[in-house]
């Protein structure tokens, strides 16, 4: 009788659980039994592992074979257990030393020819193994760079099962046969991508081919829209949610597409969090193991509630709010989204995460994003235009605007009416606006001031600071909140709205280099919140 064990990782959302793969050989009729709550994909690993072992030159044991996945109460899914199952079987058959694989974490899918294929979720799986105390992992060679992002873990990348056997037995590592001719797609990389997701989903991509040499969408390309540009700057500096309302063609989408490039690069910790989510979702591009820029996710208005917040059959998968973690979630034509899908965003907007409960388990996914809503004022989009001939009845306009519920809009800090572009602005006679680089530098400086003030606290941005702290620990200048308090008494602001005005006022003060918000800063915050002109001073241009 032979017995061996190896380790792998089961992913539940973006969290991992180390699974012990045990293989037991007993005399009897040759059979292969797999137990431990596997799903259909994992059950089929019996045939993949058997063929891979034989085609790798090793003998398949002709005995009664039982493979158990422990703990048995944790659901296991996916083909990432193939490599650990094969190693445990080979250890039980004494092809490899059972002691050499006992504390080894193996993750990877096996092809029938013995090649090791990459799987999704390598980074969160290796993170879970490291947290459990394991220091040696074996992954597909295509995923070795992603696994190496975890510190203090020794990573071995293999391309085939025969290479793993040679490493474990101390033999000569076989040379790989030449792959497909250059220029042909590598079928092995198909395991990294979810069909239909695409490579660019959730990632802000550079735009090549610009004449001025810039490789990203430039804010200077936006004609006019001075108020909306200021609101975009405030949103980037403080992480405040933004609602852009205006007629078609005014530039709402252009503004939203440039917001990710105003945000500073992700920190190391944020990059690992974002990369883990994208790896599980299957949208991490090959050759880019670490996401360094803020993500940008713009789902179509036909998206379901499950696609926005996460879900699906079996174990829930990340939705758009998680793909936009530490980045921007842009909902264009927001009034066309289903009301239930929009209202499902209210909880992650407050908490920064989403908890999805299904029969297969409960998953907690990160969802700390900056939301941008864009909508037309009416179905035809001409309601706010003078002499444009809007024929929408008032009742239709009210119903259209009511699709964005009050509780959802109450969580949006900045609300801006985007005006039609004038001929002067469109033809460039009014001069070009500031570039993305100039505004991004100002945003960086404001965030540095915020970080210095919030040092040794659990918060990082003004949008995260509770209102109680802003009213007691970090007070505004005396008398600065008088206009906001009057709006609260008149019912123009809710208690949550007053807290959000305070947060925006602190961001405006940081952009102006002030130690605390003063009356003009609160006036700007109120104007951006309510849309009512307060005679507020505009934010300073660069160099003023």
UniProtKB/TrEMBL annotation:
It comes from the Bacteria. Pfam families: ChlI, Mg_chelatase, Mg_chelatase_C. CDD domains: AAA (cd00009). InterPro entries: AAA+_ATPase, CHLI-like, Mg_chelat-rel_C, Mg_chelatse_chII-like_cat_dom, P-loop_NTPase, Ribosomal_Su5_D2-typ_SF, Ribsml_uS5_D2-typ_fold_subgr. Residues 238-422 form the AAA+ ATPase domain. Gene3D superfamilies: 3.30.230.10, P-loop containing nucleotide triphosphate hydrolases (3.40.50.300). This is AAA+ ATPase domain-containing protein. It comes from Streptomyces spororaveus.
